[in-house]
């Protein structure tokens, strides 16, 4: 007999598990279905973010950063460290422990909030009286019936045509997180978030890293001034980034991978690497959802079609996160998950796409919110710009990392902040001040008049705000 629920969430990633917990907090009888498995075959909720994305990549970035500091920067502080070595197996094991702690934390939250968890793949069977019948294909097949369905099935790595992932030589983000030894030569196709972060990890550990990017500009979505500053830093570190390339045939063999490509000048080139990471974006994951059984509408990319409130074309069916339009960001999925749960409860869920922050966790970190200078120019918006370098920031000097700047863009007439862009130390944390300010329609003067702790990196944000009106305190 089918088990009855008010809300069934298909997918236990950031959008799904957050939606399930919030719906349960609002008084609904909730089930969450997720098929991720750990190495022992047990449940591993958290989706791509927790298992092969945000969390494990940050663990590896932290480990590799410690290693680089010990080898290259401790001496500046009077610390002598000799014979520093990296135990890659132990680094990977620590990463796996961090992932498991997050998996277990989600299962604990389900139990605490009385969310019924089902381990397996969820798919539509048919529309049923008052809702939908959902099949769970796991160790034992079960059938659930829900009045409201929230789809949060995430996304998958996009492979190059004709070059599937084998996760040994040609790696997706999954394989890139499980490399067992430092490759002598590492190739990356795509200079997006995953490419830059994973390239940074293995470059710090000694790999010779080459990144091939098809676009003629570096980090096209980033403010141009910030992107140029970031590329200067990466070039100095030894990351080799080639722009405007066209990738041709890729061959794998006992010696590794060979990539044939043409450079920006149209000249034929060949690159031999031990391993190749392909980072050319992600595609919505609707495989096995059996959407056709209920007539769920998908677009040409395979994404689920939703309106501004995340409603699909079917009554009582919602979708959030990577499987719908908008940026493929874990925190965007979380915001949508909470909003949908609240909308089901008759509340007014809130998601503001204009204030969703973006972060690339390289060193230097890159973070931004709002519009770039090139976007404002293209839209014909009159604006004022101000920037402040970390080179002039006392805390950055004390940290020993003065790379980068904070840049602020404000409306020329109203002074409302339209965008904030940061490249430099702890940009991922600093950007939150800008998000809060923009959410409350703050002006650059508002930031300039707020007292910031001294010495702190956040003073650079205040200085950038002052610079918008051509003022400075010059800490």
Quickly count the helices: 13
Main structural class? alpha/beta
Percent of residues in helical segments? 25-40%
The N- to C-terminal Cα distance equals 70 Å
What integer value in Å does the Rg equal?
24 Å
Please state the average pLDDT score.
96
> What fraction strand?
25-35%
Which ranges are low-confidence, i.e. pLDDT below 50, for 5 or more consecutive residues?
Answer: none
Main β-sheet: number of strands, strand sense, barrel status? 5 strands, mixed, barrel
Strand order of the largest sheet: 1-2-3-4-5
Tell me the number of strands.
21
Q: Report the principal-axis shape.
A: globular
Oligomer: single chain
What characteristics describe this protein?
alpha/beta, 5-stranded parallel beta sheet, about 30% helix, about 475 residues
């Amino acid at each position: 007999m089918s088990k009855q629920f008010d809300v069934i969430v298909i997918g236990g990633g950031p959008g799904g598990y957050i939606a399930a917990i919030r719906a349960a907090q609002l008084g609904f009888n909730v089930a969450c279905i997720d098929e991720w498995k750990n190495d022992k075959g047990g449940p591993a909720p958290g989706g791509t973010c927790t298992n092969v994305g945000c969390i494990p990549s940050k663990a590896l970035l932290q480990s590799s950063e410690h290693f680089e500091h010990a080898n290259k920067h401790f001496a500046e502080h009077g610390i002598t460290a000799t014979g520093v070595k990296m135990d890659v197996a132990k680094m990977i094991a620590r990463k796996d422990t961090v992932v498991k702690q997050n998996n277990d934390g989600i299962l604990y939250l389900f139990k605490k909030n009385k969310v019924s968890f089902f381990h397996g793949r969820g798919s539509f069977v048919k529309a049923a009286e008052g809702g939908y019948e959902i099949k769970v294909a796991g160790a034992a097949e079960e059938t659930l019936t829900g009045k409201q369905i929230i789809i949060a099935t995430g996304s998958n790595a996009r492979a190059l045509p004709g070059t599937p992932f084998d996760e040994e030589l040609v790696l997706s983000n999954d394989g890139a997180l499980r490399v067992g030894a430092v490759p002598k030569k590492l190739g990356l196709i795509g200079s997006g978030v995953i490419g830059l972060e994973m390239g940074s990890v293995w470059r710090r550990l000694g790999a010779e890293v080459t990144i091939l990017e098809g676009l003629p500009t570096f980090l096209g979505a980033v403010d141009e001034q910030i992107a140029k500053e970031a590329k200067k830093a990466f070039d100095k570190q030894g990351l080799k980034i080639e722009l405007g390339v066209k990738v041709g045939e890729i061959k794998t063999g006992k010696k590794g991978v060979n990539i044939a490509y043409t450079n920006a000048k149209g000249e034929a080139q060949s690159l031999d690497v031990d391993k190749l990471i392909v980072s050319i974006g992600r595609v919505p994951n609707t495989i096995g959802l059996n959407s056709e059984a209920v007539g769920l509408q998908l677009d040409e990319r395979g994404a689920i079609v939703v309106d501004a409130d995340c409603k699909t074309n079917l009554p009582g069916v919602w979708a959030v996160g990577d499987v719908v339009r908008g940026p493929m960001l874990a925190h965007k999925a979380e915001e949508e998950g909470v909003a949908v749960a609240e909308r089901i409860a008759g509340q007014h869920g809130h998601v503001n796409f204009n204030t969703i922050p973006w972060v690339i966790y390289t060193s230097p970190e890159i973070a931004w919110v709002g519009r770039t200078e090139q976007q404002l120019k293209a839209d014909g918006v009159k604006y004022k710009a101000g920037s402040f370098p970390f080179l002039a920031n006392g805390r950055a000097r004390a940290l020993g990392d003065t790379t980068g700047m904070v840049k602020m863009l404000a409306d020329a007439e109203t002074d409302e902040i339209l965008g904030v862009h940061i490249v430099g130390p702890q940009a991922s944390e600093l950007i939150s001040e800008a998000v809060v300010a923009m959410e409350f329609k703050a002006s650059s003067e508002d930031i300039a008049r707020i007292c910031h702790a001294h010495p702190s990196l956040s003073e650079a944000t205040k200085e950038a705000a002052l610079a918008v009106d051509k003022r400075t305190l010059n800490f």
